[in-house]
Design goal:
7-stranded mixed beta sheet; 4-stranded antiparallel beta sheet; globular
Length: 126
Amino acid sequence: QLQLVESGGGLVQPGGSLRLSCAASGFTLDYYAIGWFRQAPGKEREGVSCISSSDGSTYYADSVKGRFTISRDNAKNTVVLQMNSLKPEDTAVYYCAARPRLFRQCVLYGGTYHNWGQGTQVTVSS
């Protein structure tokens, strides 16, 4: 069974950094397009970033461009989301998800992802 587990969330001051990891068990993450999504209280889920399995192409929401970086660590079978210059509006539960293996290009629309982690809380506050 495909399982994803997020880690690395926490409380950080504005301007700080966090590194989120999405670890896989039961499958090789490199074969799948992976997305990071977030959901704040009272708001809809938002696509944050994703990385394709076909060519490693990456995409970012406008709200995080230049601040967040997504990458793969194949040795650890993880996908990492490095978040810098964090803002209070980045506060949310962050989820990673995998598209079906057939769809190697990633997109920022969560409805096309079938395997989700349980989420990790990120709180940006002074």
